[in-house]
Specification:
- With 289 residues, the chain is of the alpha+beta class.
- 33% of the residues lie in helices and 21% in strands.
- Strand 3 (62-68) and strand 4 (71-77) form a beta hairpin.
- The chain is globular.
- Bound molecules: adenosine-5'-triphosphate and magnesium ion (MG) (2 copies).
- One magnesium ion binds at residues 22, 227, 244.
């Protein structure tokens, strides 16, 4: 007797898209493993250039602008689509997360801000100066610069924004994760001490660094508030991509950035490669010889 069993079905299961950080309302899932992000012209310009830059393999594929419910969206690849129950980490790169332009605007109209004072003391009651305490307010520029010193942004040139594990737990409470040891602990937890995954990430970051150092796009842009999205799953598959180009702005030609020099107001250096160097060093130290 022939025992008929159903043919194995190899239809690939697509992971549902999950978001780690950022405004939930900004995204919609599309069909065929694509993702819609609320339109931003700055981001569109970056994507258009990136599609013909050497960085192309390190960014989501871009498919132009599309409309949904009368709202414009940038259409891109969902980077999670080829993973099975992925673990995801969003790391914001650079030693500064506001544009020089934002700082300039804040300087032009220096208003003492009570809301920012409140936010400041909620995090650290000792942070305000005596004068700020008397006014119960801080200037926006002061607040912006103070905020960068809380996390590892100012000291390491990157910070963890959020981690989502495959079991569904999500941690976005890294605003005060500042020191190397704290970062290492978060990374160990993210990869569940799996050294093979860690090794893949280290390799991928080294490849990214080599491409960034040659990229025409990268040398001609101030890259602020952009993240690296780390994704791995139980099969051992791991990848890293650059995302979020809402504050990535072109330099006036022929000016270029090296992304490693310390920032002084006016030079527009963003510390992106300095942060990447630090990240690679940290991973290298975590790995066995
Ligand atoms: P913010 O400026 O506050 O960081 P945002 O609205 O600009 O947020 P992004 O930073 O681009 O949004 O993305 C937010 C989150 O959405 C990321 O942390 C990631 O989890 C997810 N995400 C963004 N782009 C992709 C993508 N192409 N594929 C998969 N997930 C993505
Ligand atoms: Mg972001
Ligand atoms: Mg953004």
């Amino acid at each position: 007797m022939v025992n008929w069993s159903p043919l194995p079905v190899t239809v690939k299961k697509r992971s549902p898209w999950v978001q780690v950080v950022g405004h939930a309302g900004n995204f919609k899932t599309g069909s065929d493993g694509r993702l819609l992000k609320r339109y931003c012209e700055c981001e569109q310009q970056c994507f258009l250039q990136l599609m013909s830059d050497s960085l192309r393999p390190f960014v989501p594929g871009y498919y132009g602008v599309t409309q949904r419910d009368e709202q414009d969206y940038n259409l891109m690849d969902d980077l999670l689509a080829d993973f099975d129950s992925p673990c995801i980490m969003d790391c914001k790169m650079g030693s500064r997360t506001y544009l020089e332009e934002e700082l300039r605007k804040a300087c032009e109209s220096p208003q003492p801000r009570k809301d920012m004072y409140e936010k400041m003391i909620a995090v650290d009651p000792d942070a305000p100066t005596e004068e700020e305490r008397a006014q119960q307010a801080v200037l926006k520029t002061r607040y912006m610069q103070w905020r960068e010193t809380l996390s590892s942004t100012a000291t390491l040139g990157f910070r963890i924004e959020g981690i989502k594990k495959s079991c569904g737990t999500c941690n976005t409470n890294f605003k005060r994760t500042k020191y190397k040891d704290e970062v290492i602990q978060a990374l160990e937890d993210f990869v569940d001490n799996n050294m093979l995954i860690l090794r893949s990430y280290q390799q991928r970051l080294k490849e990214l660094r080599a491409v960034l150092e040659k990229s025409d796009f990268f040398k001609a842009h101030e890259v602020v508030g952009s993240s690296l999205l780390f994704v791995h799953d139980l099969t051992g598959k791991a990848g890293i991509w650059m995302i979020d180009f809402g504050k990535t702005v072109p330099m006036p030609p022929p000016l270029n950035l090296d992304h490693r020099s310390p920032w002084v107001e006016g030079n527009r250096e963003d510390g992106y490669l300095w942060g990447l160097d630090n990240f690679i060093d940290i991973l290298t130290n975590m790995l066995p010889e």
